[in-house]
User: What shape does this take?
Amino acid sequence: MKQPSPTVAFPQGNDVARRRYLEDTGSRRFRRAVRDFIRRRPLGTIGAVIILVMIFAAAFADVVAPYDPREGEFTGLPLPPSLDHFLGTDPFGRDVFSRLLYGARTALLVGFVSSLVGSTVGLALGVIGAYFGGRIDEVIQRLMDVLISFPLIVIAIAVVAALGPGTGNVIVAVTIPVIPRVARVVRSSGLAVVRMPYIEAARSVGVQAPRIMFRHMVPNVFAPYLILLTAFLGQAILLEASLSFLGLGVVEPEPAWGLMLRGQGMAFLEQAPWLAIAPGVAISLAVFGFNLFGDSLRDALDPRLRTA
Amino acid sequence: MIAYVIGRLLLMIPTLLGVASLTFVIMRVVPGDVVALRYSQSGSAPQEVIDRERALLGLDRPLHEQYLDFMSGILRLDFGRSLWTDQPVATEIGSRFGISFELAIIAALIATSLAVPLGVLAAVKQDTWIDYAIRVFSIGGLAMPSFWLGIMTILLLVVVFRWAPPLIFRPLWEDPAANLGQLIWPALTVGYRYSAVATRMTRSSVLEVLREDYVRTARAKGLREVLVIVRHALRNSLLPVVTVISLEFAFLFGGLVVTEQVFNVNGLGKLIVDAVAHRDYPLVQALVLIFAFVFVFVNFLVDLLYGVLDPRIRYT
Assistant: This one.
């Protein structure tokens, strides 16, 4: 059985490897880690490539997209894929391919911001709970219980109903469910860290609580945090698509993949299947990429941690 | 053991009361109420009429009174009447509950019967093309939005089989064949995603157990590989698998909103979207409470099941 070896670990008892490790500068070490990742984790590399392509599409949508994503020449009927419109047009004459490219912006924006903010708040709550324990931990835990047993979609519907649809509010709606899920995992890792002698040592020399948490606890629960962060990136993109599809997310004429499936995608299902197929493939590919990459990252960082 | 069960059941109470209170607050914060929405559809109405209607529904009473009413209602298991249809909330939910429940059960059956064999196979053939294929299949299930998969299924059925989406729902006890024919497609699209989650868990759990000493011992004494896998590896790796399958089941209950929308299935998911849209406070509150209860209760059952599956686990 092949045992995956950690990408950067101090190779013990091997002089050549140790010397090479010590001679390595930061950038060289990083390049070696990347090369290792590519060789050992082909699926993860595919994921990384998909993510990079998506980031590229989002960043250079202005240059790459052949048409304006928000306005088109009104034709009344969607046009099938042709040389002019490589993925056809929607009933408003907007180029589907251009809308897909700009849609990557929306997806990445919502995905990155909400999983980053949600995971970081969860990290803070988890570390605080694990460090203080007792009543503070109990209160945080019960709060997380409430949030986690609250149906995801209801949170989203409520946020959007209260604040109105729009990209910013979708981010809020997608962020909230991430928090309790990260907080729980971080807390359970943190409980093990808190018992470590170095925490006691820090406390006994009079280091203040915030500093202990930030300098000693956070770095030691960083692996699960990073893993969950990547895992939720894909989930956040999916959730954004579902919300936009339900009419609770991004609003027209903003280009978003879930929104493209809504209405037109369904109404013209038989006459213009490309309207429904293209955005769905885009969503699936994006989430697929993030999941593949996240999976391999998990294997590389912590083979014992399981996330479904 | 009994003390543990009672303790766990008592712990559910603050969680559920928290969920109920949060729902109450959220629904009042969301702008608009049922009366305003009703009249916004039929044009404008004089202010007195709107006020009278609000008073009739009790919406003009101070918030703390409404809150206490709602809370005491929960204790008596009386959720009141829907503000939109004036039917008792219990009736509204009762007629939909069965559909969602059946859908979730079929999906769970599909998922389990796919996930366990695939997960074991992937683990046994780790890092071969079989493993890669199964992993890609399951990550694909996680990546494809189930509503889009639903749309594609409909597209396929309509174009290839000239299938027409059913207009009325047939209950299981009236016409089992027609009922299954209606629910099998949404169940399949949901079940695929569901199976993906479970397959991944089975794979990693079996992989972990395969490294154990007793597996090596079983092999060393010459036991047939099939028996090693089924009796020793699979049995000992069931715990996390059962956990995800159960938790996912609880999640399905509150998470089928979009799939029900696509397939036009009249379940709880559609009901809650409508209820929120109508600002039907009693109905929303009851539905959220049910979802939360199912979630908390399944969690509790899973913890109890641990003791059955692994006798080493003691409850204190």
Observations:
- The CA atoms of residues 275 and 284 of chain B lie 6 Å apart.
- Chain B has a mean pLDDT of 81.
- Chain B touches chain A through 61 residues (CB under 8 Å).
- Residues 16-75 of chain B form one domain.
